[in-house]
Amino acid sequence: MFKPLLILIFLVTIVSYITTRAQSTKSAKENSGLAGIKKDSAYTADYTFIGDSVFNGLKKIVAFYVKKYADPACKKLVYTKRDIREAIKKPLLLGNIRKNKKTSVFLLLPFSFCDYKNGNGKSYYFTDTSLPRLPADVYCTHPENIFLVGDIDEDGVSEIGEYYSSCASHYKSLRVWTLKNKQWQQVGLSTFDLYHMDTDRPYSSYVKKIRKGEFAMYEKTDLPIDKTKSMVGYWIKYKMK
Q1: Which phi and psi (to 5°) does residue 103 adopt?
Q2: Which of 113, 190, 206, 237 has the greatest number of CB atoms lying within 10 Å of its CB?
Q3: Burial class (CB in 10 A: 0-12, 13-18, 19+), 98
Q4: Beta carbons within 10 angstroms of residue 224's beta carbon
Q5: Cα–chain-centroid distance for residue 213?
């Protein structure tokens, strides 16, 4: 008489355990944002996948930027894991942006639909997390597009240059950014014409410091910023405020 009862109690216990475990697993997936995601896909803000599988050793840094910039109220973006790996590339050592602090640059995809809707493509991030990200409104971005141009304003932080490509045509540009009020501000621009510029030279050679707070950028193009300089190589001077 007792044996069937014991078997029934055992079966009820097992069913209860399985149900509880399933609910717990479902809840964990929902809390981590993985519910409904295929095994070969991931959210672009999944710092665990990116930090462990793409940028080995940078999980804490990626997590820092996700928590800083990802809006939890916005719809998340999903890519295949293969596309994420191909899109964000390997970090590249830049050098010292801040004095005595070696820094690398890497790319991350937009974290959410809000990022995408606001015109942000991939953004540049730095292993020195005291530096803000540098958003881009295009997807033709590579770590090699960022380069140092020296501490022009002599505030202890190097200005950075960006090779900007619209993914089409031979008209590209070089941009110089400075760190002000914890944000990157553009302080210089020149046309980089693939038909007329020496593409074998490093981008940094087209930016030169004149004196504290002043620099120049070289361009040679049939579509110059100064319309009187068509097809004449010249230096555009800039003065930082």
Answers
A1: -135, 140
A2: 190
A3: middle
A4: 19
A5: 27
For residues 117 and 220, what is the distance between their CA atoms, to the nearest angstrom? 34
Looking at residue 229, what DSSP letter applies? Answer: G
Contact 141, 124 (CB under 8 A): yes
Location of structure tokens 């999944």: 46
Segments in the chain below pLDDT 50: 1-3, 5-34
The residue whose two tokens read 């020195």 is 128
Query: Is the model's pTM score more than 0.90?
Result: no
Nearest to 196 by CA among 166, 228, 229, 164: 229
- Dihedral of CA atoms 233, 165, 163, 134 in degrees, nearest 10, equals 140
* pLDDT at residue 167, rounded to an integer: 84
DSSP states of 129-196? TTSPPEE-SSS---GGGEEEEE-SS-SSB-EEEEEE--SSSSEEEEEEEEEETTEEEEEEEEEEETTT
- Number of C-beta neighbours around residue 86 at 10 A: 11
Q: Residue 138: what residue type?
A: V
Cα 102 to Cα 128: distance, rounded to the nearest angstrom: 8
Residue 210 CA to residue 189 CA, distance in Å, equals: 16
Dist CA 80 CA 86 (whole Å): 10
Report the pLDDT value the prediction gives residue 57, as an integer from 0 to 100: 85
DSSP state letter for 77: P
Q: Using an 8 Å Cβ cutoff, are 97 and 110 in contact?
A: no
Nearest CA-CA partner of 181 in 202, 197, 163, 157:
157
**pLDDT tens-digit profile of 27-41?**
333 334 445 688 999
Q: Going along 6-91, which residue ranges are E strands?
A: 41-43, 78-80
Q: How far apart are CA 9 and CA 224, in angstroms?
A: 84
The pLDDT value given to residue 212: 98
